Every structure is written in structure tokens, then in C-alpha cells.
Amino acid sequence: MMENALLMGSIPLWALVLIMVWTIPWKGVALWRSARNGHMIWFVALLLVNTIAILEIIYIFGFSKKKMPAVQVKAKPAKTTKCKRKR
Fold it and tell me: What is the pTM assigned to this prediction?
């Protein structure tokens, strides 16, 4: 039991649980966005580095924005003549 106390330092268990509850959703969103955007380096960094969600928040709000594709203007369809209906 003493070995566990030395490894965890003096951080109480409730604080560790609170840190995990805060970090896991941020890490999940950041990893999902980096995978969807094809940012492999960010994915590996976010997966391996634990910064208590600071790096994840920076990625989500600063680097995960997809570049918007150029807007293409659609050509107007050619005018067609209306056929009169027989009654």
C-alpha cells in the first residue's frame, strides 16, 4: 500500500477521478477530430501526451478547423420552353 502512495504522491483519489472526468471527453473529441482531418502527427501527440486536456483544447479550437473548399458557382440551367397542356 505504501508503494502506491509513493507513486501517486499526495494527490487524493477524488482529485484523480476529477482529472480523469475532465480529461477523457476532451481527449476523445480531439482524437476523433484529428483522425477525421487526417492529422496523424496531432493524433499521435494527443494520444501519448497527457496535459490534463490543455493540448486537446488547443487542438480543438486552434488547429482542427477544416479548410473550407472553394465555393463553386453552379451554372444556371438553360431555359426550357413550356409545353401547353391539352385539356
Answer: 0.63
